[in-house]
Amino acid sequence: MNAKVTKKWSVYLLSCADETLYCGITNDLGKRLRQHNGEIQGGAKYTASRRPCQLVYQEAVATRSCASQREYQIKKMSRLAKQRLIDTTIS
């Protein structure tokens, strides 16, 4: 019996050292954070010069397609709207 391994996808926001926000998707958030912070190889060029980066928002989604769509929605938001999204998950 072949069991299909299902990886959960996440949409996330990072707060960078220069106070900008970075949005991305991944199916391994811990590894991706280490990549963004230069602990292991990989990560985005954007975050390479803005370290350290701190996770401030995470949203679980079912598929990569859903993650990409949600990432697109979040990237189109204003900074204020992104901050509200972050604040509603904290409180």
Automatic annotation (TrEMBL):
Domain of life: Bacteria
Entries under InterPro entries matching the protein: GIY-YIG_endonuc (IPR000305), GIY-YIG_endonuc_sf (IPR035901), UPF0213_domain (IPR050190)
SUPFAM superfamilies for the chain: GIY-YIG endonuclease (SSF82771)
Gene3D superfamilies the UniProt entry points to: GIY-YIG endonuclease (3.40.1440.10)
Ranges of residues in domain GIY-YIG: 7-84
PANTHER family per record: UPF0213 PROTEIN YHBQ (PTHR34477:SF1)
Family of this protein: Belongs to the UPF0213 family.
Protein name, per record: GIY-YIG nuclease family protein
Organism of origin: Thiomicrorhabdus sediminis
